[in-house]
Specification:
By secondary structure, this protein is an alpha+beta fold. The protein has a single domain, classed as TATA-Binding Protein, CATH 3.30.310.190. The protein has three helices and five strands; from the N terminus they run βαββββαα. The chain has a five-stranded antiparallel β-sheet, with helices on one face. A hairpin with a 2-residue loop joins β2 and β3. α1 packs antiparallel against α2. The radius of gyration is 14 Å and the shape is globular. About 4% of the residues have low confidence.
Length: 122
């Protein structure tokens, strides 16, 4: 499947094309599913289900948002609900998603972009 760089994914609706993203965590941030569960709960007022070693939830334009640990990184897979057309819902979900990524990884969107570029150039 075509992997689109993070910088091109401004809205989660666009991320529908991406199978999965992996995120490295900043030094001092524990790669622990319980901590990541807490970050999800703080960012999204939705029910979070534990499916084996994966956290699964649905909120806003996310039909499903799945988070797990893979290759010493946090892996995130999103599936968008394409029936949602409300701009306010799209923007609010996007903000919550970015807040979650910041809380979970310790990196801002700009720092995550820089890390993604470093990964590609390796």
């Amino acid at each position: 499947m075509l992997k689109i760089p993070e910088r091109l994914c401004f809205l989660p609706a666009i991320k529908k094309m991406i199978a999965m993203q992996e995120y490295t965590l900043k030094r001092g941030y524990k790669l622990d599913l319980e901590r990541i569960h807490e970050c999800l709960a703080e960012s999204f007022p939705a029910e979070i289900k534990k499916n084996g070693d994966k956290l699964v939830m649905s909120y806003g334009i996310f039909k499903t948002l799945t988070v797990w640990i893979q290759n010493k990184k946090m892996a995130v897979d999103t599936e968008s609900d394409t029936t949602v057309k409300d701009d306010e819902t799209i923007l609010e979900t996007n903000k919550r998603y970015r807040d979650f990524l910041y809380k979970a990884t310790g990196y801002t969107a700009k720092e995550r972009l820089k890390k993604a570029k470093e990964e590609v150039s390796k």
